[in-house]
Amino acid sequence: MNVRIEKDGNEWVAILPPHPDMPDEELGLPASTREEAEAEGRAYEAITQSSLYKFDFNEATGNYSVSIGKEGEKYEAPLLANAYEQAQEAYAKRVSEPPPPDVEPAAPEPKPKQTRRRMGNGAKPQEQPPAEVPHIAAPAPKQEVLPPQRNNITSGIGNKPTQLQPPKEDLADHRNRIDRLEMILIAFARTVIKEIKDGA
User: Fold this and answer.
1) Is the dihedral of CA 140, 141, 142, 148 positive or negative?
2) Where are the domains of the chain?
3) pTM of the prediction?
């Protein structure tokens, strides 16, 4: 803290740093106790370092006044720390309250669009009323007629014209795999039949 705390007779004073315009003159904030003088010094430093708060001394009332922002809302108290505390509480309350809901004006009814026709020879254009669009009934959806099915269409893998060609692989290997699959399925079926008979 750049503020010095000194005792002057029966009171304590927070000695402020010299003002650049008056380097030889010391200003102080008097208080009854050392704690109050320290609070005055902290309030002074907080206000001078803030762009939101400003303070002044009202000689008519003998009070310090702290204002918030550009609105000029002021809070007065005999001690600068108390006036600053009131201003802080007021600002915190203002910030915490939700803003009032914006009342949106009712949207004006759209005006009918005016069409203008260009006239030759400097004649004034005449305003034309909007043309009415005739109501046209939507046509019934057409039902798609499917062509008759042809029996010669086949699918899958094979050698016919509409089938996919079998992959180029060893036909013997392919048959061996099918044979192995058949053997596995037959063995599985026998096992199931045996378990059913044993359970019966």
Assistant:
1) negative
2) 4-96, 156-200
3) 0.46
